[in-house]
């Protein structure tokens, strides 16, 4: 198995990128210059998990604002709460799937994001 710049097997470094919701991915993307497998997982995890966090934050903010309207607030805020709950489930499933696949040595492409990442790595 190929090693990463961190001295870890590449599958461990790639899995850590996903398991830490992109935090280790940011470090790996800066430090790792050679290993395309680790760089792919690092960049994809940053984009996916940062994007999900931003969307969840916006939905939570809008839902909170609408939910604070007297009388109608719970009707207006409820759909946003449900959407945020589903988004949390999607995030948990993405986290588990991407971490497992990286550990298994595979490079699953998240729709749209995976293609963007591959184009960036070719530059």
Shape: elongated
Largest sheet: none
Low-confidence stretches: none
The count of DSSP E runs of length 2 or more, i.e. the number of strands, is 0
Order of helices and strands: HHHHH
Distance between the termini: 25 Å
Mean pLDDT: 93
Helical segment count: 5
β-sheet strand percentage: under 5%
Measured on Cα atoms, how large is the radius of gyration?
17 Å
What would you call the structural class?
mainly alpha
Residue share in helices?
over 70%
Q: Supply the number of structural domains.
A: 1
What does this structure look like?
By secondary structure, the chain is an all-alpha fold. The protein has helices spanning 10-19, 23-31, 36-67, 73-103, 113-122. The radius of gyration is 17 Å and the shape is elongated.
Short key terms for the protein model shown above:
single chain; 123 residues; mainly alpha; 5 helices; elongated
Task: Produce the secondary structure layout.
Blueprint: H1 10-19, H2 23-31, H3 36-67, H4 73-103, H5 113-122
Helix pairs in contact: 1-2, 1-3, 1-4, 2-3, 3-4, 3-5
Summarize the structure.
The chain is mainly α. The chain is built from five helices and no strands.
